[in-house]
Design brief:
Length: 347
């Protein structure tokens, strides 16, 4: 079962991005000859559709494979296996020249707003470079476009001649957003774009991203730890655990009635809206399985021992749990029963 954003694929528009069976494994090498002795299974059998004009959140703890997925989608990392189709074009089979042409339509906002900017280049050079490199404008026109991009993200023209170290973290992230917008892409992968920013600045950047999506009609893949931020920006959310999607659906369904215990634990970590408001915090127990071990039902049972009945006795796969809601389990009925028990299942 593949998570789709429509209940009737035959009558809906085609996905802008369609990922099937994406895998990424990193070799582990040891010894004088650096021989490969194992593999880190960073992403395993990842499927996802992103529709035009939509925003899909990717959430999960550090190391679950979110950033690896985002980089593989743009082929900043080469996938080990799987299919990535953008606007119907298979990206994994493209040569360097053809891939570069496709990258006009796919951009990325990186997590670190300082490390992602060249400290030796002025902001004018940073923003005009992609326009000139793709042959869209000459240098003079590109400079004018760079000034307009800065104004669009809330900065001023006089900032064009400054360098990255002269800006605050929030301003640098706005510059990163302006650079991603320069080629007017259809898809932007946002890799935790607000995690390094103060809370007040986070709100400004998130509101900016919402305004840009409304004005330009682009699609987002929004990678984040903060589920509250994802709910504010995205219509759908995919919860990742050890390189796999364990729950997917509309934000309304996932936040209102999560079925997977990992999703429940993540949602319990969202701070209460009012001070002193009672909220049960779910603390995961047990050891995180090694990503060098092949996928199996046991990888779930080590951290969710009270939910073992839902993950054993069959093949782990995504089940349709309801309209616009999928969850990974071997026994969906057992998982539903445990979810209905609520807190009792964690005792």
């Amino acid at each position: 079962m593949v998570p789709h954003m429509s209940e009737s694929p035959s009558s809906s528009p085609q996905p802008l991005l369609s990922v099937r069976g994406l895998c990424k494994r990193f070799p582990v090498r040891k010894g004088l000859l650096a021989r490969q002795v194992a593999q880190v299974h960073a992403v395993e059998d990842f499927d996802l559709d992103v529709m035009p004009g939509s925003a899909v959140g990717l959430v999960g703890e550090s190391g679950c494979g979110k950033t690896t997925v985002g980089r593989c989608m743009l082929r900043l990392l080469e996938p080990s296996a799987g299919s990535i189709r953008f606007r119907g074009i298979e990206l994994t089979s493209l040569g360097a020249g053809a891939l570069r042409r496709q990258r006009r339509h796919m951009q990325m906002i990186f997590q670190d707003p300082y490390a992602s900017l060249n400290p030796r280049m002025s902001i004018a050079e940073t923003l005009s470079e992609p326009l000139v490199a793709h042959g869209l404008m000459d240098h003079q026109a590109a400079r004018e476009e760079a000034a307009q991009l800065l104004e669009r993200v809330g900065l001023e023209r006089l900032h064009l001649h400054r360098f990255p170290h002269e800006f605050s973290g929030g301003q640098r992230q706005r510059i990163g957003i302006a650079r991603a917008l320069a080629l007017k892409p259809e898809l932007i992968v946002c890799d935790e774009p607000v995690s390094a920013l103060d809370v007040s600045v986070q709100a400004q950047v998130i509101n900016l991203l919402r305004d840009l999506q409304r004005d330009y009609g682009m699609s987002y893949i929004f990678i984040a730890h903060d589920l509250a931020v994802v709910a504010h920006l995205c219509s759908h959310v995919a919860v990742m655990y050890l390189g796999e999607i364990v729950e997917y659906g509309s934000c309304e369904n996932i936040y209102r009635s999560p079925l997977h215990p990992y999703t429940q634990a993540l949602l319990s970590a969202i701070p209460a809206e009012e001070p002193g408001q009672g909220k049960q915090r779910i603390i995961l127990q047990g050891d995180l399985p090694s990503p060098m071990q092949p996928p199996s039902s046991q990888r779930m049972c080590t951290r969710f021992p009270h939910h073992a009945a839902a993950f054993q006795g069959g093949t782990l796969r995504l089940h349709r749990a309801g309209p616009d809601h999928w969850v990974r389990a071997a026994n969906l009925d057992a998982l539903r029963e445990l979810a209905e028990q609520g807190a009792a299942a964690w005792q």
